[in-house]
Amino acid sequence: MANRSLCVYLHGRYWWTVLLPICVASGLYLFVLHHYQSLSYRDPTSFFFDHSRAYERHYSTRRITESQNFLSASSDAPTPRRLPWEDPILCVGIVTVRRREDQYVGLTLASLLDGLNQSERNNIYINLFFADTDPLQHPAFAEKWAETLPDRLLTYSRDHPEFTKLQAWERDGYYQNKSVNDYKHLMNACYETGAKYIAMIEDDTLAVKGWLGPTLQALNVVEQRTSGHEWIYLRLFYTESLLGWNSEEWPQYLFWSFVVWASSTAAMIAARKWLKAPNLLASSIVWTTMWPIPSGVHVMNKYGCCSQGLIFPHFIIRRVLDLVNSAEDLFVDMMLENIADSEGLSRFAVVPSILQHIGATSSKGYGFDFSATSLWNFRFEEYSPSGI
Ligand SMILES: *[C@@H]1O[C@H](CO)[C@@H](O)[C@H](O)[C@H]1NC(C)=O
Ligand SMILES: *[C@@H]1O[C@H](CO)[C@@H](O)[C@H](O)[C@H]1NC(C)=O
């Protein structure tokens, strides 16, 4: 009965009022689908995540080449020119230990320096710390750039009160104990530069060209938002895979989703006068649930993973140094999370990520390599060839 009446209807004068809207609606739907597929295939929280394409290195391949070129011409790089009473704005601490295979620390350093002009270079102070108790074991230690590019090259002095303990940790594979100690040693060295902010960057990361400007802007945003409240760090790298960002920022998310949904629905209701296409409503709902995390500074108190790049305000360093304790059975990143939780300190992140993780072999030793390759920021690969 229903079929017959539909056929009768279709054979009637107004068949096109049904078919045309269906064609238009399907076309639009496919367009929207395609659009979101191309937008979200790198977003692991999205329905459209495409594993085979998501890990393609687009921007980072380019950035690695640029960094290699920078290293081979490193003698032309601007050297910092600061007056004795001028404190740098940002101290960048990079700790490196010899890895089993490739060493990435040169690329990390070069990507941070390539593209900076003289005044930007003056604003940052780079501490490069070779943390092997015998730094000559580290293949990069003898490279010329290791001496010329950083403001200061640090190693453990044989007079260090715990030198023999450090050697024992190294020899016996107590990686975790040693890495906590290395982190504190470097953080303290950066603290002593008097810089307003301290960036702790791991030796297997890659910075986007032009990173400093947006980073300082993001720090300003954090200062404005926290006026009067303490905060612990601004995150320069996060992995989207672990990001339940909706659950942290759901009020805004819900609000904007609603605004978009309501306006598109209203538009469609208006359009329905001449387009009988209720499935447009369905596409508007699909649409508003696919939003990737917007650019800018976000609170990321949970789910922001890993310590590839964190910037701490100077005022929090003494407390962090007191609380990060090598007697606790944890890696530094987990300790920092615990400190932030117990002290009620906010954590922030810049979106998109300023750093990418490039290491495939973990400096944490065997058994950590799987997690090393999956530490990845998908959005980083979408930067334009010229950087930020
Ligand atoms: C260096 O670059 C920054 C950021 O692009 C710019 O604001 C500044 O004016 C530049 N300084 C010089 C001396 O070129
Ligand atoms: C390494 O640290 C753990 C706690 O994280 C501690 O129990 C252990 O004794 C330390 N090992 C050495 C050799 O110091």
TrEMBL record:
Q: Name one GO molecular function term.
A: glycosyltransferase activity
- State the UniProt keywords alphabetically: Membrane, Transmembrane, Transmembrane helix
Q: Keyword Transmembrane on this protein?
A: yes
GO biological-process terms attached to the record: GPI anchor biosynthetic process
Q: Transmembrane segments in this chain: where?
A: 14-32
The record's Gene Ontology cellular component field reads: Golgi membrane
InterPro entries registered for this protein in UniProt: PGAP4 (IPR029675)
The source's domain of life comes to Eukaryota
Q: What is this protein called?
A: Integral membrane protein
